[in-house]
Amino acid sequence: MSGADSLPDDLEGVRESLIEWYRRDHRDFPWRRTDDPYAILVSEVMSQQTQLERVEEAWAAFLERWPDAEALAAADRSAVVGFWTDHSLGYNNRAKYLHEAARQVGEEFGGEFPEEPDDLRELQGVGPYTANAVASFAFDNGDAVVDTNVKRVLYRAFDVPDDDSAFEETAGELMPAGESRVWNNAIMELGGVACRKTPRCDEAGCPWREWCRAYETGDFTAPDVPTQPTFEGSRRQKRGRAIRVLKEYDELPLDELGPRVRVDYGGETGEEWLRGLVSDLADDGLVEIEGDRVRLRR
Ligand code: SF4
Q1: N or C of the chain: less Cβ packing under 10 Å?
Q2: 36-139: CATH architecture
Q3: Which of 12, 20, 44, 173 is catalytic?
């Protein structure tokens, strides 16, 4: 089976729901507010080895000191490397490459950043992933990003086999044409805040729950998560099932909901257990409880 074979028929629904989810709320990293290729390249190189939250401060300081490629190209290499070390940004080589890339933009590209991923790869230290990220985020001109987060999402949601070409093919098929900026941001956000190693399907309001195979089966293993996060996984699975049952019936008494959520309803996993589960769902704003009845919140 190829990767794209496993996508749901309602591709438009899958696309729109994710973009809408991303637009409604996302982590507000400053480099998401710019389309300056230089600033984006700096953020990408810095994030290769450093957590995003920590990159923010270093990124702002770097841009204040060297606001564009021309300024960076004119700097002493030792100053750039020194900055890298002072901010604990990982391998110094990355600072050297960035400095060199800035020089190339001036000397080989006439001071204008290239817009195509293939041309961006001419820049020192810029591999396929970074080239595509800069093309997407600066020029809305990239292909679908496939990183570990994206692979995890595709593997769980659509059962894509753990195979690089299957991931590439599915990711490409899924991305709406010409919308690489919003799409790549959105799917990476999904992997970063919802479909984490321990997934947060309901808590993060994952927009793909209705299509997701892992959500349906409760098997949240993934290429980078070989062992099922057991307790979390099975509780999530039951939460998901309760929501799906309520979508079907709209409202049910607890003693009718219980057996539909788990076949072994009763005893230790009886009413008390179910009340705990639905009150979590109520806390998350997903259902309403009135006496013995549970209703889906619209
Ligand atoms: S429902 Fe859960 S497992 Fe499926 S894509 Fe969303 S966060 Fe990932």
Answers
A1: C
A2: Orthogonal Bundle (1.10)
A3: 44
